[in-house]
Amino acid sequence: MINFFRKKPVSHPKYWEEYVQSFEQKLPTELHEIRFVVLDTETTGFDYIHDRILSIGALTLQNQSILVSEGLELYLEQEHYNTDSIKIHGILKSENIYRISEEEAMQQLLGYLGNAVIIAHHAVFDMNMINKALERMGLPKLKNLVMDTSNLYKSTLLTSNLIKKKEHYSLDELAEKFDISRKDRHTAMGDAYITAIAFLKIKSRLKEKGVLRLKDLLKIG
Amino acid sequence: MKNTISHRVADFLKSYPPFNLLGKSDLLALSEQIIIIYKDKDSPVFLENDKPHPHFYVVNKGAIALRVSSEKSMVDLCDEGDIFGLRPLMASENYKMEARAKEESIIYAIPIDIFKPYALQNHKVGDYLIASFASNTRNPYSESHRGRLYEELLDPVAPHTPLMDLQTVTYSKKLISCREDTPVNEVAEKMTKNKVGAMVVLKNKLPIGIITDRDLRNNIVTGKYPITVEASKIMVSPVTTFTKHLTITQAQMAMMKDNISHLCITKDGTPNTKAVGILSKHDIMVAMGNNPVVLIKAIKRAKKIKSIKRLRKSIDHLLSGYLEQNIPMTLTSKIITELNDVCIKQVIKLSLKEMPSKPPVKFTWLSLGSQGRSEQLLQTDQDNALVFENVPEEDLQETTDYFLKLAKIINKGLFDIGYDYCPAEMMASNPNWCHSLDEWKAKVTQWITNPGSDEVLLSSIFFDYNVTYGNKALADELSEHIFEITQKYPLFYLHLASGALQNPSPTGFFRQVLLEADGEHKDTFDLKRRALMPLTDAARVLILSHSVKNVNNTFERFDKLAQLEPNNKETFLACSHATKALLKFRTKQGLMHNDSGRYIAIEQLNKEERIKLKRTFKTIRDIQELISVRFKVSNLMR
After folding, report:
1. Is B130 a domain residue?
2. Residue B217 covered by a domain
3. pLDDT digit string (tens) for B90-99?
4. A98, B400, B506, B547: least CB-packed within 10 angstroms?
């Protein structure tokens, strides 16, 4: 009875412990030294409880550069399928791609992320999907700092009574505005790439407005 | 393992040499090792005398300028698909020039260690590289130089004049031809249809003669032959032929020697092989890029947005030449505005072709702001609007949708040739700036009768419109309407006038020049807001109060005002002069720093320039005083 209220210290798998340990190292102060991971997920739908992640695309952005060889592209085995969303991402259950289990995918993702700053378009959604997957495995939520390109973009727009800012800006709108080819749109990696280029262009515009530090960027996005 | 990004990279590279010579799997393997780098405008990729990087570069988006520090001008400009920084890696020596992003760019860094084996194994790639190193061209506008390798050592002789001898010509690859028995009237029709001045006469694909405008004039119009005569009767034969590797000087010499205006390009340079193209005097003049008439012709012929973009760059070239030679600002701005106008017109023409159907009713494309005032010398943001003819109520939605779709294509086209999107969304693709004539009338009436600060701001941008394309009568009707309403609501002038006085003053209490206090442009002088805008705004309200139509340009407006009000002639002429001086200032600064020229570092100006600048400030104070007295702008309003 004594230990009834106190949580038993849960022992987490080794890969989680390593992930947590990576945060002991402080983030560099210079923006160009910080490792950003730009990611996107394709899911069976928009329901956090029932829907599942089908694929994750992530790439590393450091010093304004992307190493093509260092991308992470995962396809997940899932039981739940939603015929409506297949129209968008085109991932079929029977399609012949190498797939891994959700657990394996999360393990790889955590290893890839480390203490990087995450960038995603409408990041709340991707973060929730990933956190739900972690929860199913009995793990806590992600610890990374997160920035949303939709919010960052909004802050580059002029503040004027003459323009009505929208609540949300889609990735398509950003791609059009910044002249980024929409090739591979609606694949996780393709969207992650568009998000990465959009982030770089937004960052450059914010720099003109005097937003220079990570702290300032985090405040906006 | 699937890698979407490397496919994307490979997909881009495969259209450009030497990567198009690689096999598919090799290209994919190479693409996996590439680094994608984003460069801010003006940031360097490498500097002169830097140790060679482990990579060479390909431009994916944007433009990279190559410069040698001993020279002021740019050596070369690399855009999409161009390779740079390879030669020093092959030769293991330091960089001989610096590479810097001329605009925001994305470049691919390709590791030399991985690329080198391909260059050695695949002899086609090797041959290509050797050929490119040997025949490097310096003409940044020539089509034929795409995908070449820059990083050659400059010829030490006369570094500022382009060496025509080294430049290969760009000829027209679209060969317009006829047979020897084609009647001459058909020849003439075909020439008119294709907008060319010469046609090659082919027999079994071999060129046997050439017919130019001159031959038609000399032989047909004079009555020497009937218009149905066979082509062979009037053609000039034999044809002067060359290979495509002909240089500009060679071409000029050949044309002068035989007093001809066209050369035929054949496969091996003799008349005994297939004709592949034609080269005219006009092509040579474009290559030399120093004649506005030639440029206009070339722009009007452009079939792709991309070719207009390249021609736009020659306009900047021309502009800097004019400024250097001190050509009067009135003339310079006229010519450059005309050229810009032609570019926009051509973009609209090309965009119209992309639409599935013809416009349902007449429409007018209005340029607003500085472009509308013909003061846009450097490319800045695009501000535009669209007016279309009134349609029955039930068709309005459909018609609006059509024009919005068209405007979207046009705005994108203008963006592609270098006009940034307007940050305030004042573009015809915005539903607020694309209306029927009646809707516009209602809208401006609303602005004029309820002048809040937003309305005054909108009017001040919109009222400087200028017809760039389409039906002029629509714009005239709108102007009439504006004058009519403003006459009825004189209060509007007061608001416009007080708006004109709201710009921050150029000088402080002690007559010192006021600099920006913070932001990216800290400690610079905001030439646009503090000096040019007060003049522009003043000219607008004064000319509007005189109901003068179709004079949009600020200095022309002041000249006109000087005529209308002889007692204030001196003030107005001073304003006209000041506007010109400031515009010139701004353009020079803009060209020097590759920006809009809006912010000026005062301490970098020499004494004479500072005095010139300060002199305009007195004029600004005079005109502001005149306005505040005339329109009785009380201090309360301000």
Report:
1. yes
2. yes
3. 777 888 888 9
4. A98
Of B257, B288, B319, the residue at which a domain comes to its end is: B288
Domain that holds residue B262: 177-288
What are the tokens at B586? 């701004």
Q: How far apart, in Å, are the Cα atoms of B191 and each of B80, B205, B412?
A: 33, 19, 32
pTM: 0.67
**Mind telling me how many Å the CA of B8 is from chain A's nearest CA?**
8
Name the residue of chain B whose CA is nearest to A186's CA. Answer: B4
Of B255-259, B416-420, B508-512, the range with the highest mean pLDDT is B416-420
A135, A102 Cβ separation under 8 angstroms: no
User: Touching check for A159 and chain B: CB below 8 Å?
Assistant: no
Q: Check whether B114 has a pLDDT greater than 50.
A: yes
CATH of the domain at B257: 3.10.580.10
Do B300 and B254 reside in the same domain of the chain?
no
Whether residue A117 is contained in a domain is answered as yes
pLDDT of B633 > 90? The answer is no
Q: Name the residue facing B32 among A66, A68, A157 (closest C-beta).
A: A68
Tell me, what CATH number does B31's domain have?
A: 2.60.120.10
pLDDT of residue B384: 92
Contact B35 A162 (CB under 8 A): no
Question: Is the same domain home to B360 and B424?
Answer: yes
B130 band by pLDDT with thresholds 50, 70 and 90: low
pLDDT of residue B206: 87
Partner residue opposite B5 with nearest CB, options A75, A157, A189: A189
Q: Residue A11: exposed, middle, or buried by beta-carbon count in 10 A (0-12, 13-18, 19+)?
A: exposed
Cis bond before residue B490 (omega within 30° of 0): no
pLDDT in tens, B461-479: 888 888 889 988 998 899 8
Using a CB-CB cut-off of 8 Å, the residues of chain B touching A66 are: 5, 35-37
Count of structural domains, chain B: 4
How many angstroms separate the CA atoms of B332 and B592, rounded? 17
What ranges make up the beta strands (E) of A70-123?
Answer: 72-75, 117-120
ipTM: 0.86
CA pair distance B516, A210, nearest whole angstrom? 14
> Closest approach of chain A CAs to the CA of B7, in angstroms?
10
- Is residue B624 included in any domain, yes or no? yes
CB contacts of A184 in chain B (<8 Å) are 4, 7-8
**Using one digit for the tens of pLDDT, what is the confidence trace for B171-226?**
777 788 899 899 998 999 988 888 888 889 988 888 888 998 888 888 888 888 88
Is A44 part of a structural domain of the chain? yes
Q: Do A162 and B458 touch (CB under 8 A)?
A: yes
Contact assignment for B520 to A200 by CB distance below 8 Å:
no
CA distance A93 to chain B (A): 17
Domain assignment present for residue B16? The answer is yes
Residue A26 lies in a domain: no
Among the partner-chain residues B4, B35, B415, the one whose CB lies closest to the CB of A57 is B4
> Residue A74: which domain range?
38-220
Contact A68 B33 (CB under 8 A): yes
Residues in chain A with CB shorter than 8 Å from the CB of B415 are: 179
Q: Return the residue of A nearest to B39 by Cα.
A: A64
d(CA B171, CA B315): 20
**CA-atom Rg of chain B in angstroms:** 28
For residue B106, which of B80, B67, B70, B69 has the smallest C-alpha distance? Answer: B80
Q: Are residues B328 and B280 in the same domain?
A: no
Domains: count for chain A: 1
